[in-house]
Each structure stands twice: as C-alpha cells, then as structure tokens.
C-alpha cells in the first residue's frame, strides 16, 4: 500500500468488533461505499476530459460485484458495455459493409478500453498481420486516476460505514 494512506490498520482492528453474523454484510456495504466514491470521481474525470459525446460512457461507469468459484468476492470499477448492458441495452438493426443486416447496441461505450489504455491504429483493413502500425492513440485514463485521486476518501467512506455498523451492533 502507498505510504500516504491513513487508517487501514485502525479500520482492520475496528472491523474485528463487528459480530461474525454481520461481517459479510458490513464488508459489502463498506466496499460499496468506497466504490461509490471512486465511481463518482471516475465519472467526473471522464466528463472533465470531454468524453461526453453521447453520455453513454459516463452513465455506464459502474461498480460490479463478482464472486469466484472458490467463494472470493471482488468488486470491479469499470464500464458496462456490450451484452453486459443487460436491460439497458437497446439494439437496432443496421446494414454492414458487407451488405448483411446485423444488430448493434445503441449507446454502447465499447470504446472505453481504448480511451483508458490507448491503442494502435493499423494501416490497411485493421488486421494486425496485414497492416503496419500507423500511429498510436494515446490513453486518456479516467478509471485509474480516480483511485489515485480519491484513495483516502474511499477509505474514510469505509470507516464511516464500519462505525455505523458497530453502533448498530452495540445498540441491539
């Protein structure tokens, strides 16, 4: 961890004060609170960088909870896109370059990864094997800087949620 982060040891010690039956719920609420701080910052950074063409990118910056087969739960800050748009996905039929009718998602920010990490633009038909790299599109990250900018605020949000859970446990 970075040396500038304050309160992680105190947070860990205070978490031991939460009852065993409340630990799972409390930990989820704590991480969700921290994720909310980071999501808000990522949306603000994306908008400040002028990435609001349709608004789809900013609206789809989300926190997602994934559970692995071995029971470990992790939270991911990213951009919902493609099939993952779920019920928010709106499809329309278009005619492709080859004349075939295909369906595409409307307001699908599939390009978010190109903005976050940058990408190479190739000459020719875009296939790596046939075309040479013409230029590099530089990254304009908004997810990674959100963590750098609001790391301490995220930990503080977790601490506030933990204090609320401890108060609730002690009042019972």
Attribute tags:
HK97 gp10 family phage protein, alpha+beta, 44% helix, 5 helices, two-stranded antiparallel sheet, 172 residues
Task: Tell me what the structure shows.
The structure is a single chain. With 172 residues, the chain is α+β, with helices and mostly antiparallel strands. α1 runs parallel beside α5. The relative contact order is 0.19. The strands form three sheets. It has a two-stranded antiparallel sheet. The protein has a two-stranded antiparallel ribbon with strand order 3-4. The chain has a domain at 8-80 and 142-171. The chain contains five helices and six strands.
Would you kindly provide a brief summary of this structure?
This is HK97 gp10 family phage protein. The protein has 172 residues and is α+β, with helices and mostly antiparallel strands.
Secondary-structure map with pairings?
Elements: H1 8-15, H2 20-48, H3 56-59, E1 61-67, E2 73-79, E3 90-95, E4 101-106, H4 112-117, E5 119-122, E6 133-137, H5 144-171
Antiparallel strand pairs: 1-2, 3-4, 5-6
């Amino acid at each position: 961890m970075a040396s500038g982060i304050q309160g992680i040891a105190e947070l860990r010690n205070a978490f031991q004060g939460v009852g065993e039956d409340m630990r799972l719920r409390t930990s989820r609420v704590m991480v969700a609170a921290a994720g909310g701080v980071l999501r808000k910052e990522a949306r603000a950074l994306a908008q400040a960088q002028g990435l609001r063409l349709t608004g789809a990118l900013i609206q789809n910056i989300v926190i997602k909870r994934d559970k692995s087969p071995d029971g470990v739960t992790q939270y991911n800050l990213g951009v919902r896109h493609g099939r993952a748009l779920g019920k928010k996905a709106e499809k329309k039929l278009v005619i492709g370059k080859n004349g075939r009718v295909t369906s595409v998602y409307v307001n699908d920010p599939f390009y978010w990864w190109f903005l976050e990490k940058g990408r190479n633009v190739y000459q020719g038909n875009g296939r790596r094997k046939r075309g040479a790299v013409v230029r590099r599109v530089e990254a304009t990250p908004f997810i990674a800087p959100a963590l750098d900018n609001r790391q301490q605020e995220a930990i503080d949000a977790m601490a506030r949620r933990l204090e609320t859970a401890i108060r609730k446990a002690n009042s019972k």
